[in-house]
Design brief:
It is a single chain. The chain is α+β, with helices and mostly antiparallel strands and 248 residues long. The chain is 17% helix and 40% strand. The chain has 5 helices and 12 strands. Strands 1, 2, 3, 4, 5, 6, 7, 8, 9, 10, 11 and 12 form a 12-stranded mixed beta sheet that branches. It is globular, with a radius of gyration of 19 Å. The model has no long low-confidence stretch (mean pLDDT 90).
Amino acid sequence: LMQVFTRAVEATLGRRAKIITIDGNGVIALEKPAGMLSHPNENGKTTPLSMLFNGSYDSNGEFYTINIKNDNIMKSQKLWLLNRLDYATSGVILAASSSTLSATIKQQFKLRKVSKTYYAKVFGHSRHHKLDNVMEWTDSMVGRQMKLSEAKTHVRILSENSKDHTLLLELKPTTGFKHQLRYQCAKRGFPIVGDRMYGDFGLNKTLLKGHSINRLYLHCQSLEFSYNHNNSLYQFEAQSSVPEEFIT
């Protein structure tokens, strides 16, 4: 059954999206490419190729419905989205095969018990910041119900490219505000390469001119958490390799 399920998920994935792992309970980790929506926009004006799954999406229940064929019998299967990545961001995105699992893991996100690691290529110089030193960035951001709350991220500078004046950052957000990392990087003079909203438009134009890879250089590299299911504790971890263009 697991093989049938895996094949069905694979067959309905959007172009260039990949399965990283599926655990025995039906928690699915996928690798989303940059330039793909996690789910359709509210107005529904999207083409199937630009979405995570080629299936119908229920925005109230936050699930896709896909078809699974087993022994020539076609059944519909719901897949609940557990987290979001911006259209322009690549990396690990999660889904679950049941509403129970979905509720359990979404609660872990809410309680900030999911360890998240992102990589970003940014403009800037290390200056007085030492490589590998951990910094904590705290900012006031507008959250749900338009309330001001603290956004927190632990940051390490992994490497510096003096040729194009960029840094590779490891970002570990402990909160999950919309555009949190993009905003925090830009605020500190480290705009993410390719960011058209918070970035440095002049530097983007110069660096990405004639570059075949014109994207936002932000990637969700790993997600890790534990969860309870049927009175047992499970550990889940999914990793996605840092895209080559971040390092070169």
